[in-house]
Amino acid sequence: MQVNFQSVNYTSDIKLVEFTQKRMDKITHFYNQIVDIYVYTKVENTADRINKFAELKIGIPGDDVVVKKTAKSFEEAINTAADAAERILKKRKEKQRP
Question: What domain range includes position 53?
Answer without folding.
Answer: 2-96
